[in-house]
Amino acid sequence: MKSMGSRDRLSAASAASSHRRLLFVVFASCFAFATFLTFLYTTSHFTAAASSSSGSGTASDSASISTATADGGGAASLAARSKSNKLPLPVFDALVHFASISNATHRMSDTDIRAISAVLRDRAPCNLLVFGLGAESPLWLALNHGGRTVFLEENEFYVKYLEPRHPGLEAYDVSYTTKVRDFRDLLAAARASRAKECRPVQNLLFSECRLAINDLPNDLYDVAWDMVLIDGPSGWNPTSPGRMPSIFTTAVLARSGATAAKGPTDVLLHDFQFEVEQVLSREFLCDENRVAGSGTPSLGHFIIRGGGPTDAFCSGSSESGEKTRRRK
């Protein structure tokens, strides 16, 4: 058998190459056509779905508006939607249980954790303001599922440490200029200017009272806080900032602006057994607002209502004793 000549081999190779090019063109044309059909189908399907969703959303919105109108306003409807985000009770109880048996260092006592959780169970989901970051911070964030929880912390490095480790944690560092050793002088100054810079109802953003915290992000002063937990800043020694500013600021927040307008505010003061907390709570949170039978020896529970006298935090003397009121 004779071998194929060079010309024959070139002709065969050229024919094979042309055949492959033809197959490639046919394949590419079919792929492009299929892609085009898929695009048309997807676009048509998406438009139909969007129209259907828009129609049902409009109907739903109309029904909501009608219901709200029939109820006499949208507040009840909003509250119902908020409560639908409430953490299921078994999940809530399980979180509290495991937190109360935790062996984490520097944590609250079991009774304090359960007392705070009991109040939060009634209010959540809500706007919760917490002074201080600690071992329990992830718990408060979880228990207030569906609400907004904001932490204020004196140690900016602790804020930067915890935020990446707990997604969703909203925390801001606060610079305190007060010292525990000066608390009586600060209290005397606040009493002297109770009708002016340190008055009970005011815009804290512009306050010149030495006990007022006025350097927070501006929007925080416009939030209607339902509950405030005071567990900071530190106050273990004479040079610590002490909780004078957080107690005073909370007392003003509860009586002013959006917080006062939405109704009573639950205020929980941790380490209630210490002198600064005792004296400042009598002065600004008031014994008449303390809830009897609530809290623990190391946890004071107060319910603060908005408004009141322009030059006094409490209805009676700051030395009003142990008079308390029961929550209705």
UniProtKB/TrEMBL annotation:
<protein>
    <submittedName>
        <fullName>Protein IRX15-LIKE</fullName>
    </submittedName>
</protein>
<dbReference type="GO" id="GO:0000139">
    <property type="term" value="C:Golgi membrane"/>
</dbReference>
<keyword id="KW-1133">Transmembrane helix</keyword>
<keyword id="KW-0812">Transmembrane</keyword>
<dbReference type="GO" id="GO:0045492">
    <property type="term" value="P:xylan biosynthetic process"/>
</dbReference>
<keyword id="KW-0472">Membrane</keyword>
<dbReference type="InterPro" id="IPR006514">
    <property type="entry name" value="IRX15/GXM/AGM"/>
</dbReference>
<dbReference type="Pfam" id="PF21729">
    <property type="entry name" value="IRX15_IRX15L_GXM"/>
</dbReference>
